Amino acid sequence: MKSDPVATDIPANSTDASIGIVVSDWHRELTSAMLESAVKTLVQCGVMEEDIYISHVPRTMELTFAARQMNIVQEPSAVIMIGCVVKEDNPQYDCICKSVTDGYTHLNLHSEIPFVFGVLTCDNLEIAKACATQEDNLGAQCAKAALKMVNMMAGLINS
Q1: What contacts 38, CB < 8 A, 6 or more positions away?
Q2: Which run of H or E residues covers position 80?
């Protein structure tokens, strides 16, 4: 029986990976912190800065469209979607969360690369700030998940 790399392993050297990041400018203070953590983590794991593609969208609702376009144009190994939806300041919270989640699921089911969901969905701004500004925030977690998924795909292809 051939042993494939464990999907939970982050490759020791990810220099062959290219990662797209689509980030919402809504709650920019928070999404920028998550973006910064994602990029820092990717670089620490060996991804070359020139192989990290970043695109900004105005709101969370535009993430899935931009992620799909990034996949088509840049052809990255994986795409991370970073955003933040806060329930207390948004009467359309449930609609936005469902739409983005459904779009994310559709992308993963109908694409050749993994898409990683990095959208904070919080009841209030205090919780969102606490989540976005911690050291191992959702951006860093998504960067690790993207590399693990790229590693998993490489294991399937090379088996």
Answers
A1: 21, 80, 82, 118, 139, 140, 142, 143
A2: strand 78-86
Q: Is the pLDDT of residue 48 over 60?
A: yes
pLDDT surpasses 60 at 50: yes
Contact criterion met (CB below 8 Å) for 57 and 23: yes
3 DSSP assignment: P
pLDDT > 60? residue 69: yes
What is the chain's mean pLDDT, rounded? 91
> Whole-angstrom Cα distance, residue 47 to residue 54?
14
Q: Please state, in angstroms and as integers, the Cα–Cα distance from residue 130 to each residue in 11, 49, 85, 123, 137, following that order.
A: 29, 27, 14, 12, 9
DSSP for residue 17: -
Q: What is the pTM of this model?
A: 0.91
70 within 8 A of 55, measured Cβ to Cβ: yes
